[in-house]
Amino acid sequence: MNFSIKEGGILLKILKFLLISVVVGFLGGYATTVFSKSEAQLWGSILPSKNFLGLGIDLSGHCITHTKGKWSRKTFRHRRVHISGISAIINKKDILTKDEETNTIGLSIIPYVVSNRNGGKLLAVIANKKITGENFNKFYPVCFQHLSHSARSEPKFNKFYPLILLHVESKKNRKSLERHIKALQFWDMDFLTKPIKATTVSTVRNLLKKVFSKKQAKFLKGLRFNVCVELIDEEEGNVKFQVGNFGGSSPCKPALPKQSQKRTENTQTNFSPDRDDLSASNDKTCEQPPQKDAEAMQCQETSQKLATCKNKIVQVQERISQLEQEKTRIEANRNYLETTCNEANSGIDKLMEENDKLKSQIERLKREKKLKQARQQEGTNLQLKKLENKLERLTKKREKTTEEFEKLTQLTKKRDETITELEDKVDQLTKERDDIKKLANQPSSCDSQTFFAGNHKLIVVSLSKNYSRKQKKAIKNGLVEVLSNVKRNLRRLELPFTLLTIQSGKQLHTVLTSNQLRYLNLEDGSDSILGRIENGIGFGARDLRALEDLGKLDTNIKNKANSGDIIGSVLYLTDNIRLNTSLTNQQWKVSLAWCRKRIGLTVLTTKECEVWDKLGAKCTSWQNKAELISELNAFLNAAEN
Known about the structure:
- The protein is an alpha+beta fold.
- The protein is built from 16 helices and 18 strands.
- Strand 16 (567-574), helix 14 (585-597) and strand 17 (600-605) form a beta-alpha-beta unit.
């Protein structure tokens, strides 16, 4: 839902002088009018936050559900919603702008509660006569997590949430901000890194003031310019703070006072998106950063990008130099073999000449034997015997010469086969060098896209001995908890998945599949999820290699593809066993092959992500069970967002 005011120069002057209200576009029968008033009133006319900030949030355990095409309020006698935390996310479906030249965009902010019993995040939706047909006017959480996605896709809910503004310093930064927000996944749209403790809150305004007091904006993590976040409150005054500290003027503008407002909260703070929280000592008005020349900032940004590109080019050039040396060595071996074969051919020619001479001698001796037998049959028996012995020796020598000739013939054949193999290897290395050059020219060709070409997911666990006892327990318990939640909500699972392990000897073992999960029990026992995990996952392998083992996995993926089961994404749990920071040519092959096949690789490691980032994988270094469960849920639920 994009609102924009496009006015000609003459019409704009008339409107400024006459202060006439302008009717903005209609969306779903909902018209808004922009008035020439303060900033809060101006944006409030687009999305009137004051109508929703004063409404309450029900935390007593009641919830909203969707049955038979209608939303209704439900009260479960023995299964009320157990709420452990509360926070808010942004609604990236509706990005509001007043006109194309402004440096500000508007977003609606949606409160939610956290309930582990009901599946995680539960969005809070308004319950009134327009939505549920009941005489309520309050926000209630949805009853189950899968209803959060349904509520976000309902257009009639979108206009019932408060408004926040994001200010930047230039039109270019505003466009970058819009692209960043549109690319966010559901688990990245949160305002806080951790939900706040669930306590009684009287109104939505009370909740959002608590959220803003944390001075966090998780959804802005990764941006390289300052952003001012502002909550529009037409009655009590706007609240704002700054995210980032990259120099230049601050995009935060002071809120204009309003005669009817009771009090004004206007605070700014420098907030780094890479930190989870700030101490209370930073809760003060920030000074404006020193003014810098826009061209100098842009030049600095360009220099940083250029330095990064140069480093990648140097690495690729080093790899190309290694390939050139390998090619030189292979060509030297080929020349040596050619010289050896030429010498062998020369030896064969000499043996053939000697063989012809022996044949002539044999024939001559046979003739002499016959003549002597005819002339002196009795007196030449001794001489004849000597001639026969000599003939036998010559015959054996001839047979030996024939065997050597056959061996040389086989050696010549093997030489030709070796030369062909070497030529094929040179062509393969040349092709791989060209692929690496292309990767150097397009440094983010794989990791900047979202690959999910197939319809099957693989979860692969490396059973290395190097995990700590705490990590082994976290992996097993995390898988049991996540798969148990999936078992309870099988209707939400859109894509099939398979849980594999890599055991000693690089052997792959299937623990369970999504089809088998339907028939497993939630209780203990061999036919339960816990039983499958305990029996199928036993750590202790000593001969594994974190990166080389993917070659075995690639063979499994090819076999599945031949049977029509296309793998779209892989989640790999590893401890980086025997992982070197310098990548060999063979290690690049699996990454390039998966890039061409559009197979997404997500790595959860207990160590560093440096090597996996080079290969274009989405890597997360986890330290505790909560982080592991979050990443597993995100991987299994990725197709629904």
